[in-house]
Structures are given as C-alpha cells and as structure tokens.
Amino acid sequence: MRHGKKFNHLGRQAPHRKAMLSNMCASLILHKRISTTLAKAKELRKKVEPLVTRAKEDTTHNRRMAFSVLQDKEAIKILFGEISEKVGSRPGGYTRIIKTGNRLGDNAEMCIIELVDYNELMLKDSKPAKKTTRRSRRSSGKAGAEGTADAAENVEAATEKKAPKAKAEKEAAVEETEVAPVAETPENAPEAEEGKADAADTTEEDKKGE
Question: CA separation (Å) from 46 to 49, 166, 178?
Fold first, then answer.
C-alpha cells in the first residue's frame, strides 16, 4: 500500500528514481545549469540544496554524506571547493528554476534549473540603482507667483551686494541725462548786455550822420 506517499514518483521505481536524481545532481554541479522537466527540477532542488549547505563546512563526514548521493569524485571536488566559496555568504536558495515552455510531443512543462550565483546577467540586474533626486518646476496659482517674486527679490539683493559701484555709476549717468542744458550762465550775462548796448549806440550814430 502507498498510504502517505504524496511525493512525486516521476513514473519510476525507487532505485531508478534515486539513480536519476543522483546523476542530475552531479550534472548540475559540474555544468551549473541543466534543462529538464518542471517536475524533475522541483525534486532535484530538494536533493541538491542540502548538499550545497553541507559543502559550507568541509569535513570528512560531510564529504562522505555528499558522496553517498552523488557517487562522483569530480562533483565532490567542485562542490566543496569552487561552489562552497561562491555561496558561503548565502543563507539558502542556491538554485533558480526558469520555465521555458512546453515540450513538443508529450507537451511536458520544460524549464532550466541553475545555480543562482553563476548567472552573471541576473547578478548585474539585481544591483541597486543610484538614487537620483529631481526638483520639480511645477507651480500653481498664487503660491507660484509668490515664489517667483521672492526669487526675484533675492536675485536683486545679491546683485546689489556684488556690484554697488556699477549701480552708483548707473544712477549718476541717469541724473546727468535728466538735467537740461543751461542756455546762459550768470558769468556770460553782463557781456551779452554790453554787446547789445554797443549795437544800439552804433545805430543812433548812423542815423545822425544821415
């Protein structure tokens, strides 16, 4: 009877299923990613992730336990060397399953299962982006007008502080243009009156001579 046996048997007897998952674990460790059906990938993840956790502590006991599952010396060497260094700081979740559609023929769901730390493209995308602050220029109604007026006053005050000489020269030039030119100066007035008197005397003498 099969009471309580709710796991996926994958259509195989126990020895066949055990050997298949062992080979798939070794292949994933050697090649870092493999393509398989979704059901097999989910069962494979249950097998391979405890092995990666064991590889973080390199002891003789852990190596023997891993070898009892993998039955591959080369896979053990990579697991306790390269992979253990790569995933040393990760607390779990060493694999990723990416669905790739259905298989032609039996329409089985296919996927790629891979070790997370070996996908360079996704590691680049996961880096946090730099925060950029953007000041909005939107202003509505009276608040916007008041803001622009205050800004103009601040600009004027700053220019007055920076260039007082230029402002003084400008005011002096404006005053000179506003003052009208004087026709006669008080110094020249007596000379003009004397000239007029001489002209009157000459006219009277001419009339007497006639």
Answer: 6, 82, 96
* 95-100 long-range contacts, CB within 8 A, separation 24+: 95/28, 95/45, 95/48, 95/49, 96/122, 97/38, 97/41, 97/42, 97/45, 99/38, 100/35
Report which of 79, 34, 27, 30 is spatially closest to residue 57, judged by C-alpha positions. Answer: 79
C-alpha 70/C-alpha 65 separation (Å) is: 9
Range of the domain at 192: 150-205
**Structural domain includes residue 136:** no
Find how far residue 154's CA is from the centre of its chain.
33
Does residue 115 sit within a domain? Answer: yes
CA dist 200 and 7 (Å) reads: 141
Tell me the helix, strand and coil percentages in the chain, rounded to 5.
60, 10, 30
Q: What pLDDT band is residue 145 in, cutting at 50, 70 and 90?
A: low
Sheet holding 109-115, edge to edge: 33-37, 109-115, 95-102
74 lies in a domain?
Answer: yes
Strand partners, 102: 109
Q: Average the pLDDT over each of 47-51, 180-184, 202-206 and give the range with the smallest value.
A: 180-184
Which CATH number fits the domain that encloses residue 85?
A: 3.90.1030.10
Quote the pTM value. Answer: 0.57
Interatomic CA distance for residues 116 and 96, integer angstroms: 6
67: phi then psi, degrees, rounded to nearest 5:
-70, -30
Number of folded domains that form the chain = 2
